[in-house]
Amino acid sequence: MKKIAFLIWSILLVSCSSKKSLTEKKDFVIAFGSCNRVDLPNLLWDDILNTDPDVWIWGGDNIYADTDDMKALRAMYDQQKNEPGYRKLAQTTDVLGTWDDHDYGLNDGGVEFKAKAASQQEFLNFMNVPESSELRKRKGVYNSKNYVIDGHEVRIILLDTRYFRTPLTPDTETDKRIKPNEYGVGTILGDAQWNWLEKELQNSTADFNIIVSSIQYLSQEHGFEAWGNFPHEVDRLAKLIDDTKPKGVVVLSGDRHISEFSKINLEGIDYPLIDFTSSGLTHAYREFSGEPNKYRVGEVVYTESFGILEFDFKAKTVDFKIVGDNGNVLGQLEQVYE
């Protein structure tokens, strides 16, 4: 019988006493978030700092520019860089990230965006990537980085779901915005990035492999952007994970202005694949009244929040937390990885 990893989850709406759990330093801590406007109050940077993260990951929509004017784009990135709370975090924490449509420059944009090459350079400037880096020559912002902690390894794999993504199919039959393409039509990642991702997973010796996707991988019934709009790409990633069998794969996603946990059991791995969505940092879908997600674990959080992953290498656990203003833990899931 296939071994099912032990899973517990709880969704908590708690008082500030939950801050105590955020002060207990774990072996390695990742904090991440998405959907951040420079023209709205940035209220969460002090709370993010209080989690003492080893890495901060931008999950996309890091600014809301929606422009092909690189001067305007650069000005917004500079404004975010100079936000006092974020500046303090960036001075003490390693920063990684990918983009989504609004910082890419075109709402729901993909391969057709004519300013994407120039926008990529501005994104890399924001991420403080050296001019001599090979990332400056690559088409797309996909990248990876390994962290080794006392003999344990965490690999963070950052995908680009914009640069190569082919057209979406508008839904003209229901009140949803988008419907899935016909099976086999189109791509999210493109050939070069798929080949790269295969090698990343195939060659990984990491204890945990964290895949960052700006859009949700598992939740796909809502009619907005998601991997589910390219169902063959969903299957391709699942098959790739099945075939390569990397340890501890987790997907981090954003975009939706809600936060939630989703999970699925894949045939080839002995732990559930979790898609942890964290969105948004400065504005949330406060009018949220429900939507289907057959993979959801727990409840949807629809206030401003960020996500953290706390790793305990000895216990082989990851504690996933949705955290709001004043350090309140709004949702929590713990997973054991055998």
Automatic annotation (TrEMBL):
Domain of life: Bacteria
Pfam families in UniProt: PhoD (PF09423)
Domain spans labelled PhoD-like phosphatase metallophosphatase: 45-267
Cited PROSITE patterns: PROKAR_LIPOPROTEIN (PS51257)
PANTHER family referenced in this protein's UniProt entry, alphabetically: CALCINEURIN-LIKE METALLO-PHOSPHOESTERASE SUPERFAMILY PROTEIN (PTHR33987:SF1)
Name the record gives this protein: Alkaline phosphatase D
Organism: Maribacter dokdonensis
